[in-house]
Each structure stands twice: as C-alpha cells, then as structure tokens.
From TrEMBL:
Belongs to the eukaryotic ribosomal protein eS24 family. One of its GO terms (biological process) is translation. This is Small ribosomal subunit protein eS24. SUPFAM superfamilies: Ribosomal proteins S24e, L23 and L15e (SSF54189).
Length: 102
C-alpha cells in the first residue's frame, strides 16, 4: 500500500497535525489499522500517536482518500480524542488490558 500526503495543517493548541492523505491499494479497501500503521511509518511516528478518522473509497477505484490526526505523544491523543475514535484505532487497549489483569 502506498500512502501519499495531500496536505498537513499544524494545530499547536491540541498538539497535533491534521493530515489529508491518499492511499493506492491493490486489493479491497485497506483496514483502518493497516492505514494507520503505514501512515505512522511515513510520518516517523508511533502507531498510537496517529488516529485515522475517515477512509473514503469510490466504488471500483483503487484509491482511498482519508483524514487523520498525528499527535505529538500518545498521551495527547488519549486526552483529546473521543472514546469511540480511540476504540476504532485500538489506542489505549494495552493499558486497559493491563489494568484488568491486575
């Protein structure tokens, strides 16, 4: 999967960068987590610092356009993002799993 960044907009108040991107893929629309990992690698960030909000693929096309937010730290993402977006991006699950085991 090839990820191209269309635009980046700094948002210093929330310690993040808003990103519009386009990905080209061979098979079906890629999963949110695979796009998040590819985008994080492209931005040289940890996966927990990137939250993918939208993925839009037109019928029959091999391109997906999306919107994501890249935070300075994973803690910033946990503080700002809504719970359902954190669940969709599997952020904070490791901490919850450790708390349940204790």
């Amino acid at each position: 999967m090839d990820v191209d960044i269309i635009s980046e907009e700094e948002n210093p108040m929330l310690h993040r960068t808003d990103i519009r991107f386009e990905t080209t893929h061979e098979e079906a629309t890629p999963s949110r987590l695979s796009v998040r990992d590819s985008l994080a690698a492209k931005l040289d960030k940890a996966s927990e610092e990137v939250v993918v909000h939208e993925l839009n693929t037109k019928f029959g096309m091999r391109k997906t356009v999306g919107y994501a937010k890249a935070y300075d730290t994973a803690e910033d993402a946990l503080d700002v993002e809504q719970d359902h977006m954190l669940d969709r991006n599997k952020i904070g699950d490791e901490a919850d799993a450790d708390a349940e085991e204790a």
